[in-house]
Write a structure and sequence with these properties.
Blueprint lengths: L4 H16 L5 E4 L2 E5 L4 E6 L8 E6 L5 E7 L9 H13 L1 H12 L10
Antiparallel strand pairs: 1-2, 2-3, 3-4, 4-5
Helix pairs in contact: 1-2
Length: about 120
């Protein structure tokens, strides 16, 4: 069976929204992050708790039952980009971007301007 494009879009959208600060992930265990929605929960984790492969993406329904699980073991490509989602969820939970902005501001360091396109 090929890639489910809905899952690809979901994981890509979650990563994008996490990077922008629109989503706040909660830590629910060692190297495990969850996002609670109205009728679903999304979990991304490093299965062995070391922050590295293997990663797992899980979609749970409103009763906490797993309805979709996708693994990325690192031995092949990661077509669903689960590692990217894990990294952005981890950064979101730890508040990395806000802390970097705070430190840059306190030190008066400005980011280089991006060239116009």
């Amino acid at each position: 069976m090929g890639l489910d494009q809905r899952v690809v879009a979901l994981i890509g959208g979650l990563s994008e929204k996490s990077r922008s600060g629109a989503l706040q992930w909660e830590s629910t265990g060692p190297e495990q992050y969850e996002l609670s929605l109205t009728k679903s929960t999304i979990r991304v984790e490093s299965r062995d708790g070391d922050g590295m492969y293997p990663y797992q993406f899980t979609l749970l329904n409103e009763n906490g039952v797993r309805i979709e699980t996708i693994d990325a073991d690192g031995s092949a490509s990661d077509p669903y980009q689960i590692r990217d989602l894990f990294d952005t969820a981890s950064r979101s939970h730890r508040g990395v971007d806000a802390k970097l902005d705070e430190v840059l501001g306190e030190l008066g360091i400005k980011l280089p301007e991006e060239p116009p396109f």
